[in-house]
Specification:
Length: 163
């Protein structure tokens, strides 16, 4: 069974400059588990994309605002929860991102290239693709986005049998 790791909570300024700090803190939190870099990378990518969405869309880059990130391990899973008081994620975006990708439709190369170059609209799908589960709720002016990623069997050991 893995050793207990206490949850860690960070409060960060709503600035893109907070992203390197966030990534470093994520790596420090999971360092005792000696996880593969590829596993950490996917969670880091999802986390930084979620934080970027808070900064750019929720707070519209208002550096006077802050967001809170809590990292924890429960039931052989990594849980990373982001909380903010910015604009909520539109329901239509949540539904689109949670749905499985649609089968390829006919489109010419120019349309595909243009879609791939667009700056926004792919972030939530990327988050869903990087982790095992995503939950979102908005209550009393607080947005709460939780990223869940199962720990590898080699790390979770007998803890995975408890889930």
């Amino acid at each position: 069974m893995m050793s207990a790791i206490e949850p860690r909570t960070l409060t960060l300024c709503a600035s893109l400059n907070s992203l390197p700090v966030l990534g470093e803190q994520l790596r420090r939190f999971f360092a005792p588990l000696a996880l593969e870099e590829s596993w950490i990378f996917m969670l880091d990518l999802a986390l930084c994309e979620a934080a970027t969405n808070i900064i750019r869309h929720g707070y519209r880059q208002d550096r006077g605002k802050s967001y809170v990130v809590t990292m924890a391990i429960e039931e052989a899973c990594a849980l990373v929860t982001l909380r903010d008081s910015g604009e909520p994620i539109p329901a239509a975006l949540l539904n689109t991102a949670a749905a499985p990708p649609a089968p390829a439709q006919e489109a010419d190369d120019a349309e595909i290239a243009l879609a791939l170059l667009s700056e926004s609209g792919r972030g939530l799908r990327l988050i869903h693709d990087c982790v095992d589960d995503v939950s979102y709720r908005q209550t009393q002016g607080e947005n709460c986005l939780t990223l869940i990623k199962r720990l590898p069997a080699s790390v979770s050991g007998t803890a995975s049998a408890q889930t």
